[in-house]
Amino acid sequence: MDEAENIENPEEVGQEAAAANDDGGSEGQDGCVDPADEPDALELAYGEAADLKDKLLRAMAETENLRRRNEREKTELRKYAIADFARDMLAVSDNLQRALSSVGEEARKSSPEMDQLLEGVELTQRELQGHFDKHGIKEINPLGEKLDPNLHQAVVQIEHLEAPHGTVIQVMQPGYVINDRLLRAAMVGVAKGPPAAKPADEATAEPNAPNSGHNVDTQA
Questions:
Q1: In what order do the strands lie in the sheet with 168-173?
Q2: What is the rounded CA–CA span in Å between residue 211 and residue 220?
Q3: Cα distance between residue 27 and residue 32, in whole Å
Q4: Phi and psi dihedrals of 6, rounded to 5?
Q5: What are the residue boundaries of the structural domains of the chain, listed by start?
Q6: Residue range 154-182: mean pLDDT, rounded
Q7: Angle at 187 between CA 164 and CA 191, to 5 degrees
Q8: How is the beta sheet containing 137-140 ordered, strand by strand?
Q9: Which residues, at least 6 apart from 107, have a Cβ–Cβ distance to it below 8 Å?
Q10: 137-196: in CATH 2.30.22.10
Q11: Are 169 and 191 in contact (CB under 8 A)?
Q12: Most buried of the four, 23, 49, 111, 126, by CB within 10 Å?
């Protein structure tokens, strides 16, 4: 009889198990989150690290571009800082050249004082030219070259039967560049050249050939 009393009713055991399953299921839906749905902490860390690395690379690239731009600006400043001053000094060079060109060789030989004076002017001009060379200032003397609008300023056209059209045949004022930048354009005269020859087919055409098109009366 004691063993019989210890044996529980199978129906009651089934009902209790079902109730336990119902409680566990409701708790899973209400309070607990499926671990499979939670993001992996390692994946989050990798994502954050990749984002920080991308931002770091972008910042480093911007810093490098800024450094290069500053270096380029500093280089250009060193090369062209004296451009305005050099442009003003070109007038001094022109005046020295005019002074030397104004005195002929005979007048120079006939007067020792004049010869000494011109020697001083020549020394001054050579010294000035040496400073020009030191700072990258070079003269443009395009005699015999093709006209280049970027470096030359054509002020006159001269009839010339031998020089090709557009060739510089006279230099009124030399030009100058500082390094690779134009400081002053050269004032030049260019050859106008002979008139362009007519095409061979037009030259050999009969002058009195009938016009194949419609004749237009231009008289009122």
A1: 152-158, 186-191, 168-173
A2: 21
A3: 7
A4: -75, -20
A5: 137-196
A6: 91
A7: 15
A8: 137-140, 175-178, 181-184
A9: 114
A10: yes
A11: yes
A12: 111
